[in-house]
Amino acid sequence: MEYKWIGSDKHFVDEINILQLKNNLVLGRFGGNSSVGQYKNEDGCLIWINEQDDWELAILLDAHDTAQSAELVIKSLDQKKEEIKTILQLPLNKVFPQITSFFLNHFASKEFLEQCKRIQGKTACLIVVRKGNYLWWLSIGDCILALNHPELSRLGEYQQNHRSFYEWIGQNSTFHQEVPSYNLGVKELRKGKTHIFLTTDGLIECPNTDYHRMESIFRGFETLSNQESVYYLLKDIKNKNVRDSTTIISWFVRNKKEATTPSNF
Fold first, then answer.
1. Which end of the chain is more exposed for a tag (fewer CB within 10 A), N or C?
2. For residue 222, what is the DSSP state?
């Protein structure tokens, strides 16, 4: 299953849109409120799901100035779809080193950087791959990746990536620098059900909410379905007059393998 979207094609200003894809993956979009000045949406996403080989790839983009940078990232990666999918077919111990190398080399390539110079604007970019019982991410900028699992939430662990400012891809790109800035991670998933949640910053920066605290985001999912909960989050920030657009990617995975535990457990 493959899905891609750019806010400049369909902006969802004043409109909540919920799309349920395979594996109970939900994509939620709200373009912001025109009543407080919003008139465009520069978010974007690319989602691939392979149920047979047990992996998902989700790319979330939050562009600025124009949506051209989000469009460039999606178009350039879509063109290399087969190369990416070939990597994702590899054994677990080879997938993540090679997918890291692929994305870093792609964004730093002369061809891609030349294309960046010809567009207007820049984008935050969060790339997440789940394969088997592991989660990998490359984060450039301030989109958010969070997990919810009882063993992690009991210890107060939710957010996985480091939300970083002054990092982008595009006309003003971190990959134009002598040393690019980004953060990477790999996470062993705990046994049982894990909730994987990606969002642009419109959700956590909405006034009169406490969604900057990750546990508040996950509260509704305890009693409502994935689709209902994403809708509730977007409806809440719509009612509270958020201006910024918000895009959410939310899904659950079940891991049957035992996870690493301390020896004294």
1. C
2. G
